[in-house]
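S.,

Sequence below, as promised.
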Amino acid sequence: INEMTLLSSRQFRVEETERYPGSRQDPARMASNFAGVQGTNDTRNDIVIRGNSPASTLWRLEDIDIPNPNHFAVPGSMGGPVSIINNKYLGNSDFLTGAFPAMYGNVNGGVFDLKMRNGNQERFENTFQFGVLGTELTSEGPINKASRASYIITYRYSTLDMLQGLNLKIGTDAVPKYQDMGFRINVPTKKAGTFSLWGIGGKSNIDIVVSDKLFEDIQNNESYGDKNRDQYFRTNMGVAALSHVIALNKNTWMKTSLAASLQTVNANHDLIIRDTNSVPVSPFPKILSYKFEEQKSTLAWFIHSKLTTKSSIRGGFFAVRYDENLYDQVKIIGLKDSLAQLVTDSVPWKVRENYKGNFYLLQPYIQWKYRMTELLTLSAGVYSQHVTLNNQTTIEPRIGIKWNFRENQSINLGAGLHSQMQQTYVYFAIPDTIQNFGGVEANKQRIRANEELGLTKSSHFVLGYDRQFTQNFRIKLESYFQTLWNVPVYAVSSGVSLINSGATFSRFMPIYSMKNTGTGRNYGIELTVEKFFSKHYFFLFSGSLYDSKYTGSNGKTYNSDFNGNFILNALGGIEYPIGKKKKNTIGSSTKLTYAGGRRYSPVDIDASAKIYDVVPLESSINSQRFPNYFRWDVRVSFKINKSRFKVVADGVIVPLRGITHEFAVDLVNVLNIRNVLALSYSPDPKNLKGDPLVKNYQLGFLPLFYYKIDF
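The prediction came back faster than expected:
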């Protein structure tokens, strides 16, 4: 959709979220089918692009950068188990995986550039949907038919608590509760342009209580929470914006948006220790409590002009104010020889974060597209950003070239510099240190140790080949090389790097001060063979071979957490009209995913016992890999169309409001494959001399159904 983009991108079609099996009507899970995207975590919808952390993905909605748009979102991540975004109000959008143009900044991995559609300008329409993932209601229609003003609004409430009797295995015995909504009001005017007011938001909570369950049940049924603590988790997210678009002349238009967003996360953990009979030892000590609150106020503006028949230009800026309110405290509970003997006396709370303040991010850019010949197109731009928190500034050139060397065939080349702020809570974390600080000024130095962290930077190089055989059938081949530098790593010698953060339900909280001396690199090759839906069927094959490594402050090079080395997706489906009048539709689709297993490290058992959590061996981080990941999904749908019409003068048929019923079921992981997710430290109280490490498995067979009525 963005005409400045020449490569490493594809259009995301809303109807694909309905047809792709296993996508759960979630744009992020649907994107995991695309080449270069890793989707091997059934419990979350993280978008891992070309070996980059999901925290390196930018979510943009209606030209505004938005917070993590997922329920149960953890600070420092951009994914979660359930999406707040609803496909009912989405329009066709863009998904970019590298070397993106200058209007996309503060991102190293990829971009999901989402658009909202306007409501129906002619008549009122409503949708009611009931299913495993929630009960939804959507309404849209004209506000004023003469001016073509319209609205669309959606609301969803979770229904998992209503369906507990079905014994669905969702990865936890706890009941997640969530609700979300989205709306858009669009008001065109005759001379003053078009005004739009839009917003999305959601709230969620879950109490993962393991103290009232048998030890064996926890080991087998809990994929989301730690197995040795009760967890109480609350999240809220919302963003709203007022936008104005106006045509200055027939070749130039301008857009201005003012937006505000809020994201809050609250968590409290109680440690559960069991005696040798597996009985919890009470009272349960509180060991973690944190509150994360971030507000953003954004002014976004750009102007787009078609200078000539061969040349277009876009220039603009983002001005963002961050308001932070962060607090985190933890207790380090020591253990004696027996699990029942807790050292809780006189253990103080350790404050790891305590900050309230604000700073600004300024992002000007300009992008130019020029068709040099009938066969050769150039897109070049410059992006810059300045962070007032620590006065970090960067200037980043970008370039893309497309050569249509034959009919329906092209070679594409792209390169550019990119940079990204750290997750904001990292700047204000209060680390431990090996130095001996004393006095007020020294303590300030410790507290502000990470505030001077610079931007993580990367360079992208992409070479691609496209062949469009027909309007609906294409082949795409791309190779890429990405280097990263200025990656935050510990100031002490260590293999820990922020390059691995953002893909779990646990935050990375630095225990030492950090510095920008880490590096990383990702390279690979991708193949896409795709037929878009036409003539009753579609298919998509995507394959990626890649390598992702990083270097820590100890100078050693490791596999990154996201280095699965390969991923293959094959999916397809059919849809046929049935019945005497061919008004009804039956459809079926299937998907196979085969990928390299998740990386893990050999565990330092003695060190893990001291903190009751997994501590990897420094010398062998991510040197091991779980068995390869495999999943087969199937989707079946049946649609009944009850359209109505009337015949007016001269036999003209005028359609009236109709009713459509749709029944669908997604069978996720049909073969109930037990793919391994991670290791956890959870010693069996009945066998303290046994192996304390437990494999956490991903979701097994999960049937998801819904009924939808449009009227």
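The chain is about 5% helix and 55% strand.

Coffee later?
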